[in-house]
From TrEMBL:
GO terms for cellular component: plasma membrane. PANTHER family: ABC TRANSPORTER, MEMBRANE PROTEIN (PTHR43738), HEMIN TRANSPORT SYSTEM PERMEASE PROTEIN HRTB-RELATED (PTHR43738:SF1). It comes from Hydrococcus rivularis NIES-593. Residues 274-382 form the ABC3 transporter permease C-terminal domain. Residues 21-238 form the MacB-like periplasmic core domain. This is ABC transporter.
Length: 389
């Protein structure tokens, strides 16, 4: 097969404009597929950032909860019942909600911010800055601000680093409350949240006066070292009433990802985009290779007449397809890396190139071009040298 490479390459480069068109089609397809894969993974990764940052082993949720942005409350006493098991080290309630952030620079209410309240006696967050500033939340009306929140919330990080604190207001349901930023942490945005605050559960209840302390969104359970989370989860689920569901941490992450992938249109749209990108590449490469085969049909027929088998001709066209795939993939990869960085800066989503994704798209590109080549060479299979000449 290697002996035939010069013939395949020379035939491709004979029509330089046609080769450039083929490579442009592959580059376009590669960029589309990379961007769809990247945005889809960024969606999933951003959706589970909060759960990944929780230092818990098992979690309680209401059976009516669908995702982090669609939580339903359940009785706090269910969490207390978990203390009956000797494997439990501690439990803590987590309250989730939204508030309207008053931009400290423009003094306008116009941006919803995600608020997390928790029992500050326990270190439950692994986000950088959260544990270091946890004790500061003992004071009333204070919060930690996510330094990776969108710029539309105002120059909060710059002002805090300059002055050591920042005062603004949180509004919601007809009430405004003055709050003070006493520290920064790092979590990041998601498709459902442009910014985040962490505070004590008491401060959370002050910010949400209509919320009852006995109704919580997530129950975090920390097990003692050596305890089996899966076995404990099964035992606790059988012990508790059916008005609450128990998850291990990985199950909770998978639960959130499943919602975005199957229960919203976003997962379908991304998968459709990947398929359309591949289809564009298949059509463009097929058209180029088919035209190439048609224009050189007499040469191929001559090779068949002197004894070359159809398999040889197939290899020849597939080699052209391989050249197109590799030469189109390289600039497509570079352009995608640039677009990833631009998208990350613009949206603050965790989009990045991975080795696994790079290999998958390379293999898909080669397969795409091989399908086009195999389809284009079908014209040769029925070609009779006597008819052509």
């Amino acid at each position: 097969m290697l002996q035939k490479l010069p013939t395949a390459w020379l035939q491709l480069r004979h029509q330089k404009v046609r080769l450039i068109v083929a490579l442009a089609g592959v580059v376009f397809s590669v960029v589309i597929v990379f961007m769809q894969f990247g945005l889809q993974e960024a969606l999933f990764d951003s959706a589970v950032r909060f759960y990944n940052g929780l230092e818990g082993d098992c979690f309680l949720l209401s059976p009516r909860s669908n995702a982090l942005i669609a939580m339903e409350t359940f009785p706090k006493r269910r969490l207390s019942q978990a203390l009956a098991f000797e494997e439990v080290e501690f439990v803590t309630p987590i309250y989730l909600g939204q508030g309207q952030w008053k931009n400290p620079e423009t003094r306008d209410y116009w941006r919803n911010i995600f608020i997390v309240g928790f029992d500050i006696r326990y270190p439950i967050f692994s986000f950088p800055g959260a544990e270091e500033n946890r004790k500061k939340l003992e004071l009333p009306d204070v919060v930690l601000y996510d330094r990776d929140s969108r710029a539309e919330f105002g120059p909060v990080v710059a002002e805090f680093e300059k002055k050591g604190s920042l005062v603004t207001e949180i509004g919601g349901r007809g009430t405004n409350r003055r709050i003070k930023v006493v520290g920064l942490f790092k979590m990041g945005t998601s498709f459902g949240s442009d910014g985040n605050l962490i505070t004590s559960h008491l401060n959370f209840l002050r910010l949400s006066p209509s919320r009852r302390e006995g109704s919580i969104d997530v129950g975090l359970i920390k097990l003692k070292p050596g305890a089996d989370a899966q076995k404990f989860k099964d035992r606790l689920q059988n012990y508790l009433p059916k008005d609450v569901k128990v998850f291990t941490k990985q199950e909770l992450i998978d639960f959130e990802k499943h919602y975005w992938q199957s229960s919203t249109a976003i997962g379908f749209v991304f998968n459709l985009g990947i398929m359309l990108g591949i289809m564009v590449g298949v059509v463009v490469v097929y058209q180029i290779l088919y035209t190439n085969v048609s224009e050189h049909l007499s040469e191929y027929a001559t090779l068949k007449a002197i004894g070359y088998r159809h398999r040889y001709l197939l290899f020849l066209v597939l080699q052209q397809a391989l050249f197109i795939a590799v030469l189109g993939y390289i600039p497509g990869f570079i352009i995608s890396m640039i677009q990833y960085e631009v998208t990350k800066q613009a949206t603050l989503l965790p989009i990045a190139m991975t080795f696994e994704r790079a290999v998958i798209v390379l293999v898909a590109t080669i397969a795409m071009c091989f399908i086009s080549g195999a389809s284009a060479v079908q014209k040769l299979k029925a070609a009779d040298p006597a008819d052509i000449f």
